[in-house]
Fold this protein.
Amino acid sequence: MEWTGGCLCGAVRYRATVDPIRAVNCHCWMCRRASGAAFLTHVHFPIGAFTWIQGEPMRYRSSAEAERGFCDRCGSTLTMHEAVLDDRVQVALGSLDRPENVRPDDHVWTKSQLPWLRIDDDLPRFPRSSSAVPSRAVEE
Ligand SMILES: [Zn+2]
Ligand SMILES: [Zn+2]
């Protein structure tokens, strides 16, 4: 399956030629701050099957272990690049053209989930990082 997406203004566009390895709903405060949303869903594609077809995100180093990509024209949240997961590109779910086709795997950093947010799915929930992937995310 082919997946495409990009930013709000269209200056940055990408394509992935395989299905996502993983998708995770992150409730950490940094994802909240970076996206401006209640939580941020990261969709992981293998780096070898992922191409920028127009433009490329500007990157901001948000911690010693990670960079976050955004469109330098419209500001859309686009990517997350973690040193410990350098085999993949993580795109923000909302940047996909067909986000409805993604099946998230779990919720992470639920200890920081907003108290008014009610989620009725049956996905695994992790107070901090998920056991599914290595992580060097730090608590602050
Ligand atoms: Zn843009
Ligand atoms: Zn996060």
